[in-house]
Amino acid sequence: MDSPPRIPVGQMEHVRGEPWLQALDAMLAGLAAQQPLANLLDALLGAAAHETGSDRGFLRIADSNDTRIEARASLGAWTSAPAGELEWMVERAEAVARAEPSATAGSELAVPILVGSRHVGVLAVGITSGRDQAEAVEALARFAKVAAVAFEHYRLIGTERAAREREQALRAATQVLSATLRLPKVLETILGELQNVVRYDTASVQQLRGERMVIVGGRGIDLEYFLGLGFPAYGSGGPNSDVLLHRGPVVVPDILGEHPYPDFPHSEHALSGVRSWLGVPLLFGSKCIGMITLDKLEPGFYSERDAEAAMAFAAQAAIALENARLYEQSQREVAERARAEGELREANHKLQIQIAEVEALEGRLREQAIRDPLTGLFNRRHFLETLHRELARARREGQPLSLALIDIDHFKEVNDAWGHDSGDRVLADFGTFLLENTRDTDFACRYGGEEFIVLLPAATGSAASARADAWRLALQQLRVAHSGQDLALTISIGVAEYPTHALTADDLIRLADVALYQAKREGRDRVVLAR
User: CA 32 to CA 153: how far, in whole Å?
Assistant: First the structure.
């Protein structure tokens, strides 16, 4: 079976280690404290540049659906570069984009910042010649995920704030609505009362919608045909335009006689038998929102007094139209608010999932940073940190502490005879063996190559030697299968104790190493306690 890819410990710590974790911790803390997005991006870009060894960087986030969410950060030579010179990164970062390398400046790398499949930004750095670009791209991709979390967080805050503002506006609008929400019935009542004051044969109520007039009510006309019918509001050569432009009543004594409107009446109007025409504006505040038109079969029927009386009823119709418009708008906004709240709840749920995934990833990265990927044991850096900590505790509590340095006998011969795949299998199986045969309080680590080290807190040198000998005997039962054959293993172990043999970490490791080499000189497959 092929061995998994092996990353040198130093390189793994660079990719998985503290700069990335510190940037993630800082970002989560900044989100919790509701810091400005630009501040978080500056810190994130600095961490990304530091981890990739870059001397310049550029980070941009923008939401095409909400212009309030837009921020950018730049570093090094790109701090003073014109924005246009950096836009190629935004355009090319649909996938990982790389400019042609320069002889002096190295290469520019850019990765997209994605929320789902939506492209919301770009993270780019300039790396020096000779830098491993695949490693830098991998690091940038991890920082881009953190930037996506920040973007989604601030987008949700903006959505929630907009929803609250809409709700307040809707509440204010609802307070001015009256019970007159059934517009056809209200207009019919108004026109009916108007008939008692100003006589007419036909009447229509027209609402201004943009550049068109639309019939929204009437009496004496076929509403099934005319309701919703629209025509140009201005420039039609008729009296309607005068009513709208001058916001006052217009009387045409005889539409078939002399008047200043060359395109009036239109053909259907002329054939209806109408002779007198009166139009009054629907005024709401300073706005003209439509008009009422009255028709009479008798010529010269309407006067200025009729127009004045009709204006009072037009005011009622204007209020009814505006109430109906506000009601319809509020209904649309209520529906939109419900939809936005549903989207917000769903987005919050997704954000919680993303945060949980990031936290889980952080935990995995922390664990990977202290583990040897082949054996699953702690790595050398973590062992040294633990040794210093345990020595300090042993001094405070007056307790002994021992360590056992282990070497797999004739390991080079295994690699030479059976190949490195078998060597890796031996190391992995021996790592599992140590995990299964050490206590929870022990720290089993891969020290390097085929050397392993076990830290035994509160154990004397003699007790640790006995434990080590038990491992040696138990290992005689372990067989590593390879190509139908079993490989037998033996180990040599050197043991040293604090404070009997040494008082410092370096001396303790050195004396255990001396004891280990003595065990090898004496024939291997044995345990030697330091003197």
Answer: 10
Nearest to 302 by CA among 266, 259, 267, 271: 259
Task: Dump the DSSP string for 138-195.
Answer: HHHHHHHHHHHHHHHHHHHHHHHHHHHHHHHHHHHHHHT--S---HHHHHHHHHHHHH
3-state secondary structure of 294: strand
Burial (CB < 10 A; 0-12, 13-18, 19+), residue 342, is exposed
pLDDT band at 43 (very low <50, low <70, confident <90, very high): confident
φ and ψ at residue 519, rounded to 5 degrees: -60, -35
| Other beta carbons within 10 Å of 14 | 18
Strand order in the sheet with 527-529: 443-448, 451-457, 401-408, 491-498, 527-529
The mean per-residue pLDDT over the stretch 141-152 comes to 82
**Angle in degrees, 0-180, between the axes of helices 9-16 and 380-397, rounded to the nearest 10:** 90
Burial call 239-272: b when 16+ CB within 10 Å, e when fewer = bbbbbbeeeebbbbbebeeebebeebbeeeeeee
Q: What is the mean pLDDT of residues 130-146?
A: 79
323: left (phi over 0), alpha (psi -120 to 50) or beta: alpha
- Checking phi first, is residue 130 left (phi over 0); if not, alpha (psi -120 to 50) or beta? left
| Closest C-alpha among 173, 168, 116, 109 to residue 145 | 116
Give yes or no for residue 166 having a pLDDT over 70. no
Question: Under DSSP, is residue 111 helix (H, G, I), strand (E, B) or coil?
Answer: strand
Q: What is the pTM of this model?
A: 0.38
